[in-house]
Structure formats: structure tokens, C-alpha cells
Amino acid sequence: MQNLFDEVDSLDRRCYDAYGLSEELLMEHAAEAMAGAVRERFGAGSRVVIVCGPGNNGADGLALARLLHGGYHVEVVLPLEVKSPMARLQHERLQKLGVPVVDAITPCDVLVDAIFGSGLGRPLGSGIIGLIKLMNALGAFKLACDIPTGLRSGGSCDTAVFRADLTVTMGALKRGMFSDAAKNAVGEITVAELGVSRSLYEKETPWILLERGDLRLPLRENADVHKGSFGHLGVVCGEKSGAAIIAGKAALRFGAGLVTLLSNEEVAIPYELMQSHLRPATVNAVAIGMGLGQEFAEQELRERIDNDIPLVCDADIFAHPMLGELLKRKRIVLTPHPKEFTTLLSRTGIATTDVRGLQQDRFKFVEAFCRAYPDAVLLLKGANVIIGQGDQFYVNPHGTNALAKGGSGDVLSGFIGALLAQGYTPLDAAIHASLAHTEAARRFEGQRYALTPDDLIEGVCCL
Ligand SMILES: NC(=O)C1=CN([C@@H]2O[C@H](COP(=O)(O)OP(=O)(O)OC[C@H]3O[C@@H](n4cnc5c(N)ncnc54)[C@H](O)[C@@H]3O)[C@@H](O)[C@H]2O)[C@@H](O)CC1
Ligand SMILES: Nc1ncnc2c1ncn2[C@@H]1O[C@H](COP(=O)(O)OP(=O)(O)O)[C@@H](O)[C@H]1O
Ligand SMILES: [K+]
Fold first, then answer.
1. Where does the chain bind (6S)-NADPHX (predicted)?
2. Please, are residues 244 and 261 in contact by the beta-carbon 8 Å criterion?
3. CATH number at residue 21
4. In whole angstroms, what is the distance from residue 98 CA to residue 408 CA?
């Protein structure tokens, strides 16, 4: 797990006020970290073009130019007037060293974006937009200083955004770098320590980035066990039975001792799953919503979930009349995709927004929902999954675009249901099922376009 911050200004200030460090010292460390990243990947003499903006992001770039000049063939491009005091100081130093400042970007091995960082405060002008498009079209290795230019701190992107291969971010990980839109821009991310170790630079934060190694599988440790030891998941099987079948198969594969599809009529299902009209007494967790449609009358549905067993709720449940009733429950995991989350937000009166508005401010909307429903666990799907409960938030950035296919979400619901049935808390079930889901996708050996729900289900066999 790593910490995520919505701003680092207060962390920088603590370096000055509590640790007695100076802005210049922090900047030298920032530049040295980028220089290290270049040296690791490119030999002396390689061509490095550094595009520097008016503020301290530009100043970082100018300091980088000083560090590399002599060993590398460095050129600096200054599309805007150098403004901040630190940028002016670094610029003067470059002039004394004779580092070439050029008007146009020429072919190079490394292209560094130090135009804007955390200070991007208004929309990019057309000149900078054109420049970023040109930079993105170049074949060089692309390094972003702190944050790719065009990515705003809330995680939304301007008309153009620098598409980095590597972002060297200063001091700590910023939450905005883990929005869905940011995933196109940030590339690999490394954190530069700025003169004190990260543990001293960072403070407590409610936002956590999940790492692949955080995954806790439902391993079977005791020998004297039977199928009943691993829970019984009921999957409500509605109009589109395929969705419930996928979830059921996923749950069985992820360790649930028994899985029963709760259906209204006889449906053809794989032989390893069971089927029942009523909820068997041993069912200790229920998955509901996937492919539900209009199949059940409210009373019929209520009968299937009428005690306080944990639920995982997906898909059609967010538009269902019973939503309000379900949200009163204590043990519930909600797994909307962005469109479904806009429905959830509007039906709960928290916000009226469309998918575009939601995606521009995913973190804020998740916080607002979790404030209003502190018992519920919310898992907002997307390129970077957000999981929240109360005032604790986690981001799972490990999914790939191979998951962008019908049925991937049904598999996730099945995995969550399996962990609920095996006794995980709703929050742990959401976290570890999500990590298993993304890990299974990453380990798939075929092309990204080829991953099917069955591949994901098979994928959890060998994590
Ligand atoms: N504060 C610190 O202690 C450290 C800061 N560092 C660097 O400093 C950066 C932040 O520096 P700044 O706060 O100067 O911010 P930036 O360098 O990101 O940009 C601020 C400048 O750009 C202008 N600007 C903002 N949006 C614009 C737009 N759309 N079009 C044209 N001009 C625009 C502002 O008026 C201001 O002059 C970080 O991203 C990081 O790279 C690092 O050196 C590490 C230490
Ligand atoms: N580009 C992507 N990168 C990473 N994960 C993705 C991407 N697109 C979709 N996913 C994941 O795939 C799943 C899709 O779920 P959902 O849209 O509910 O599908 P369905 O309802 O068809 O099963 C979610 O877990 C989501 O986070
Ligand atoms: K930048």
C-alpha cells in the first residue's frame, strides 16, 4: 500500500517549516531524481530536449538541464516567459553554463515535459496545446516532470495532455494521477524523495494506493473442513441469466463452498452450480443485480434477501425500486460502473451529473457518497478502480484495458460474493476480489482484445 495525496503543498511547507529545508534544496533533489531516471536508461551523449514552463515545474526542468549538460547533448525549449524566482535563478545558471536554448523541438532520445505541474491553474492556451500535440507525436522516450502537462490536480485532462512513458513525481504520489483519464498520460510512475525520506515527507491520508502484493487470497489452511466451511453464495438470476451464471462460476472458482442461482424459472446452467427458487437456509451471502431486469416482483426479491446477510449489488439494482431499502443495510458492497454510479448519485439525491462530469471528479463523488452512506462499501469501476467506505479510500490501478468487455464486471461480483461467503468483511471482500480480478487480467497471456470472462475465471486458479 502507498499513500495518495490530493495536494502536496502542505507537505512541502512542512519541509521548510519543520525540517528547515529550502525550496532550492527540494528542487535540486527533484532534478537529480529525473537525471537519475535519464542516466539509468540512456548513455552519455544521448540527445535530451527539455521543454520548460514559467513556474517551478519549468525550474525543475532547467535544473535538470544543468545536471545533464556536458554528459548529454541537452537543449532547452522555453515556450513561455520564465517567471517564478526559482525559474529565473535556474535560467541564469544555464546561461552561465552555455546550455543551448532553442526555438523548436528537434528529434531526440529523451523529451522532457516540464511545462506545468501542480500550478496548472487555468485552461491551456492554443500554443501550448499545439506544442503538447507535437511533443506527443515525437518518437522519443517521454519523461514528465512531476505531473504530465494538461493533467489537472483533480484528475481531469485539458484539451491536450502530455503522454509520458515515465512520470517522476515529486515528494509523494498525487491522487489525481490515478483518475481514469490520467491512465493514458502518466505512464510508469516513480516518486522522487526531496531531501527527507518519504516516511518523513508524507503524513496520514485517507487515500491509499493498492499494490499487487496486497492481495490476500482465500487460501485453505485447515485440513478438517468441508464445503460448508467456505460459505454458500446465492446469486439472484434474473432476465439475462448469463450474467448470474458468470458470477456464479466466478464465485465457485474463487473458493465459495457452494453456489446456488436463485431463479424464478428453470434455467440451463453449468452442472457445478445449483439452482433454487427459494433461498436455501445455508446461503450466507447474496449477489444481486447482474442481468436482473424486470424478472422479479419486489416481494419475490425481498424474500431472497430478507435477512441481514451481506450483499454484493451490481448493474440493474441501481435503477431498481428497492435501492433505497438496500442502502439501509449494514453489510453491502455496491459495484457500479460510472453510468450506474450517476444513477446511484441522483437517486440518493447526492448529485446530478452525467458520466463526463462524474469522470472529471471521480474522487470527490466517491467521497460524497461514502459520507452519506458510511456503512456501505462502494466500488466504482473504471480504468482505475476506487473502493471506499466511510472515510477510507483505496485505488486499484492494476487493471488493464483487456477488462473492457461485457461480463468482466459479472466476474468481479462473483469474486466479491465468494469472499463475502468465506467471511471477509465487505471492505476486504471488495479490495481483495478487485485485486484478484486485475491480477487475473494481467496474467492473461493472450492479446488484450481476447480476454473473456471465462479466462478471468480460470485466471484466479493460479494467482
Ligand atoms: N514547492 C516545492 O517545494 C517544490 C516544487 N516543485 C515543482 O514545482 C511545481 C509547481 O510549481 P508552480 O507552483 O510554480 O507551478 P507550475 O510550474 O506548474 O506553473 C505555475 C505557473 O504557470 C502559470 N500558469 C498556470 N496555468 C497556466 C496556463 N494554463 N497557461 C499559462 N500559464 C499558466 C502560473 O501563472 C504560474 O506562473 C511542481 O509541479 C514541481 O514540479 C519541485 O521543485 C519540488 C519542490
Ligand atoms: N480500460 C480499463 N482498464 C482497466 N479495467 C477496466 C477497463 N475497462 C473496464 N475495466 C474493468 O472491467 C469491469 C467492467 O465491468 P462492467 O462495466 O460492469 O461490465 P459487465 O457489466 O459487462 O460485466 C470493471 O471491473 C472495470 O473496472
Ligand atoms: K510537467
1. 56-60, 117-123, 146, 243, 291, 337, 410
2. yes
3. 3.40.50.10260
4. 56
- pLDDT 10s digits, 45-85: 999 999 999 999 999 999 999 999 999 999 999 999 999 99
What global pTM score does this model have? Answer: 0.96
Say yes or no: 244 and 170 in one domain: no
First to last CA, the chain: 19
Q: How many whole angstroms from 174 Cα to the centroid of ligand 3?
A: 13
325-370 residue pLDDT tens: 999 999 999 999 999 999 999 999 999 999 999 999 999 999 999 9
Which residue among 16, 17, 57, 62 is best mutated to probe the pocket of ligand 1, counting the most ligand atoms within 8 A of its Cβ? 57
Residue 431 CA, ligand 2 centroid: distance in Å: 15
> Is there a single domain that holds both residue 28 and residue 89?
yes
- Return the ligand 2 atom nearest residue 399 CA: 4
- The answer for residues whose C-beta is within 8 angstroms of residue 379's C-beta and 6 or more apart is 333, 334, 335, 336, 385, 386, 387, 412, 416, 430, 434
Total domains, the chain: 2
